[in-house]
Amino acid sequence: MHRLSHLKKMVFRGFWDELTSPIIGLAPMDGVTDAPFRYMVAKKGKPSLIITEFTNVEGLARGAIKMLDQLRFDKIERPIVAQVYGVEKDSYYKVALIICYLGFDGIDINMGCPMHKIAERGSGAGLIDTPDLAKELIRTVQKATGDWKNGITLEEAEIRPKIITALKKMQSKEAPRRLLPVSVKTRIGTQTNTSEEWTKHLLEAKPANITMHGRTLKQLYRGNADWETIAKAAEIAKGSGTSFLGNGDISSYDDAKKKIEDYKIDGVLVGRATFGNPWFFANSPPSISDRIETAIEHSQKFEEIFSDRKFFPMRKHLAWYIKGFDGAKEVRTKLMKTESSEDVLQILNAKLSPST
Predict the structure, then answer these.
(1) What gap in Å lies between CA 224 and CA 334, rounded to an integer?
(2) What are the tens digits of pLDDT across the range 283-339?
(3) How many helices and strands, by DSSP H and E, does the chain display?
(4) What pLDDT shows up at residue 9?
(5) Which pLDDT belongs to residue 352?
(6) Rounded to two decimals, what is the model's pTM?
(7) In whole angstroms, what is the distance from residue 224 CA to residue 219 CA?
(8) Cα-Cα-Cα-Cα dihedral of 214, 83, 269, 287, to 10°?
(9) Which of 73, 108, 168, 254 is surrounded by the most beta carbons within 10 Å?
């Protein structure tokens, strides 16, 4: 194990320099890596870093207060990185300041989401086809964190008053004024593999880290992630001061370590292998009783954090937890109708013994 502080200092890296190698972190996933799920992952098997689900900069900059729910986090999650997406520079600037106020450890720009409604607007993976804009957005966020460090206020940045009021309710005292590292999560291309040229463009803006998913936008999540391509792009980044992570089709903790070694990258971000498995980063398979107890705890945490939300976003997590024993299908069917953590508790207590 070693620290990554040997990388060139021309790139501001912040917490990235303090991470031990290899890096094995939690990938951002829309609709999955919300605050309750991230809390459970941090508690059950601490990853190298955690990234939030993405937040739209245009919506939040225009006053969509509800989007602040996506930027809730607990100190147990540190180092915690806020991920954002969009195309407007002014909105990136304002939202970067909001993230600084809340005390995140870093900001990640989503340049990899393949969803049609996002990519067709030129954001997410659509930015791969507009490298000049992509570089401008990285530099805009870097400037915002510098301005934050130098004392700009939310009011001076013309952030909507109702957002400022909501921020102060979330957190009465602003976070320390410090630079935050800016990173990028992306794909190997849009229609075809353009990863090497795309990586060179990104490096011009000096991001702290690049994470590359081994599929094109066109592939969505079909086919296999191309790790050979990830390795070639990573080679370009070597010595630049920017660390390079891979992403896609990681099945286990051992598989993560093997991919890091085989493809000579600094680390990986893990996504779908963590579904119903917050123990992934502890590399410790859960017992059935672990699954049951954690499903209940996760449900209670969801209600604690999102007391004003409907319960149904929790149901998919419950389905992922409850498997691997006789009668699991029947229990999952009942859990898909739950409206509260109390419902979950009653179903699991009625059907299953914690000592199972």
Answers:
(1) 34
(2) 989 999 999 999 999 999 999 999 999 999 999 999 999 988 888 999 999 999 999
(3) 13, 11
(4) 54
(5) 58
(6) 0.93
(7) 9
(8) -130
(9) 108
Which tokens go with 186?
């992306």
Q: Which residues of the chain have a pLDDT value below 50?
A: 1-7, 354-356
What is the rounded distance in angstroms from the CA atom of residue 193 to the CA atom of residue 62? 35
Q: What is the distance between the alpha carbons of residues 78 and 76, in angstroms, rounded to a whole number?
A: 6
The amino acid at 188: I
Name which of 354, 339, 243, 271 is nearest 299 in CA terms.
Answer: 339
User: Do 52 and 33 form a contact (C-beta atoms < 8 A)?
Assistant: yes
Residue 247 pairs in a beta bridge with 213, 269
Q: What token pair was written down for 55?
A: 């937040």
Residue with tokens 């086919």: 223
pLDDT tens digits along 202-226 = 999 999 999 999 999 998 888 889 9
| Average per-residue pLDDT for the chain | 94
Q: Are strands 243-247 and 80-85 parallel, antiparallel or unpaired?
A: unpaired
Question: Using an 8 Å Cβ cutoff, are 88 and 58 in contact?
Answer: yes
